[in-house]
Amino acid sequence: MTTEQIKGDFICENCLSYVEDPVVVVFHTRDAGVDKIMPCPYCGEETLVDAEPCPSCHGWMKKGDECCDKCKKWGEGQLGLFVRSLTISVLRHLDSVIEGNSLEEFR
Ligand SMILES: [Zn+2]
Ligand SMILES: [Zn+2]
Fold it and tell me: Which residues are within 8 A (CB) of 59 and not within 5 positions of it... i.e. 6 or more apart?
C-alpha cells in the first residue's frame, strides 16, 4: 500500500468539507492490478468530487453547480420570505407572469 497526493480542489458530497490536495491510497493486488481510493479525510467516505469557487459567495462548491449549498439554502429562504410577503391572489397572478420563464429574466 502506498499513498500519493493529488493536486487540486475537491469537495466531499457526504460531509460537504473542502479538501485541498487529497491523499490517494494505492493498493497493489497480487494479480498485478492497482486499486486506488480517495477517501475524504473528514468522514472517510469516497465521495470527493472536483470543486470550484462559488460565484456567489466565493466559498467552495461542486464543479458545474450554479452556487454552493449554503447559497442554495439562503436563496430558497429568501424566496420563502418573498412569497410570504405577497397575498395569494398576487401570487396566482405572478404564476401566470413567470410561466415558462427563468427568474433571471425579471432582474
Ligand atoms: Zn467527507
Ligand atoms: Zn456560495
Answer: 18, 53, 68, 70, 71
* Closest ligand to the CA of 46: 1
**Span 21-68, pLDDT tens digits:** 999 999 887 777 888 899 999 999 999 999 999 999 999 999 999 999
**Count of the separate structural domains present in the chain:** 1
Give 53 Cα–ligand 2 centroid separation in angstroms: 8
Q: What is the residue range of 15's domain? A: 2-99
Does residue 32 lie within any of the structural domains? yes
Residue 104 lies in a domain: no
